[in-house]
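Why does residue order matter? Because the sequence determines the fold. Keep that principle in mind as you read this record.
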Amino acid sequence: MCGIVGYLGDKSATEIVLEGLKRLEYRGYDSAGIAILDGSESLPKVHKCAGGIDRLIAKVAKHMPNGAIGIGHTRWATHGTPSEVNAHPHIDCSGRIAVVHNGIIENYRELKAYLESENHRFVSETDTEVIVHLIEQLYQDDFIAAVEQALRMLKGSFAVALISTHAPRTLIGARKDAPLVMGQASSDFFLASDIPALLPYTRDVMVLEDNQMVVISDKGVHIFDLHDGKSVNARYQRVSWSVEQAKKGGFKHFMEKEINECPKVIRDVLVGKVNENFEIAFEECPNIIEMLYKAKSVKFIASGTSYHASLVGKYLVEQVASVPAEAWIASEFRYNTPPLDSGTVAVFLSQSGETADTIACLRTAKSYGVGTVAVTNVVGSTLAREADAVLYLNAGPEISVASTKTFIGHLVVDIILALYLANRKGKLSGDQIRSSLRLIDRCIAAVGEVLQASEDIGRIAEKYSLAKTFLYLGRGLGLPIAMEGALKLKEISYIHAEAVAAGEIKHGPIALLDEFTPVVAVISDSRIIDKLHNNLQEVHSRHAPIIAFDSLGSQEIRRIARDYIQVPQVGDYWDIIPTSVALQIFAYRFARTLGRPIDKPRNLAKSVTVE
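Structure:
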């Protein structure tokens, strides 16, 4: 995943593109670059460098290019190591065409071999560079036609933005299996790979569909389908996010800010799903009702953090509604498609709605005639547009690479889906549903109490700053919460953390234990508290320090734990939410103690839009 920004208007393209890249830095940060046209016959002014956007800004400040049209890019490397030569934009042999690209060109080797036989000179290791050389090869006095023809020859995924002296007041964008949005504010036009880049200028955006190309010029906007060339009407939608929501708001990191937004997210995710009488109404998505009513089984499909939320969904649907359920990692489901039939409902979880493997799985499920539900945070994302039904998290922009508040939003949706299915299947009455949903206020208050205890949790995290590995344990619902806690720690601290079912500890993991291996225990299921206590006794006897996150108030576990975090109890299945927030704080404070770049951990991107 990379960040793309494009601008055409009458203002300084350099300033606007750089500001947009700064807002998209979470999408790619191993190199960055811009290309600006000044409107004359001179070639695009290209500036790029390895490293983050601040290095690029410092470099550009010495030779600020003029011009009112430009493109920019922050890179997350796929083909080619992070370096200045591999940074985007890439230019053709003549230096007249510049392109930025997100995605993977799968047939770039064949295209490169052909272009080299035609005497094109390649300077980078990237797949992207074939695009500009291919356009150069195809150009015959019609730049737009050459771009269109070149894009049709590409296999794989792409979001691109292009400028050229062949059409000096024209900004071109196109997409296939990678996000690209367009915005307009009076005479200013914008392209970006994500909405936050546009928020200072407009909140009316158009999300390009797959295989669409947009040509923006002083004559206006022309959108057409790359397959058949037919024109497409621009359909703008209003984004509810504000510029302020995409700022840190006084917090040290976006991750800290977003953890602190969890109480609001719990409330906001209910909008359009639960009414004021604590009834599940799905007013935002009424077509989901019949789909769930007929459901004989549910398959949850996701990646990363969203997969851990899927495991929670599977557990709840089976335990609460007695409906068979499975949770699949999207990249595994994609190539090991299990039996699917009309009685299956497939639920796809993705913060961005642009995760490549998850989108491919949705398309597979639809080909089998399976009802599909997207649970995502981004309005108009690919997943949201292509699913039969969509439930939005309403969490606002999540900037930190490590997901926190959207994970909490996904957990709330999991509970709502399970309760609704339980009522439809006759397992829970309407009064029982309302009783559970009335715990939402208590849940929000419990998360608030956890946030107030951040300093206490932080002091415990700091005690273990020399640890090189952590073992996370959980049972029942606590297991996927432990898995997510371990993932958060490894993502932002670069410390190994492994989560296992507590009952499995004697089947291998116990060999890891010694006095230098902290064990994080997640205690959230009263049915098996005695079993979990026995598991932790075995940990204690191996002298491994136990850090307990306990929403049940177990005195037995408190006695053997080296450090004990009492998580406020909510009831029913809601306890996993304040526990999850406490684990997020623990990971955040641990990484902060180590001085890690928390919002932009190495090698990671906010959403993985390529396989």
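Residues 405-424 form the longest helix (20 residues).
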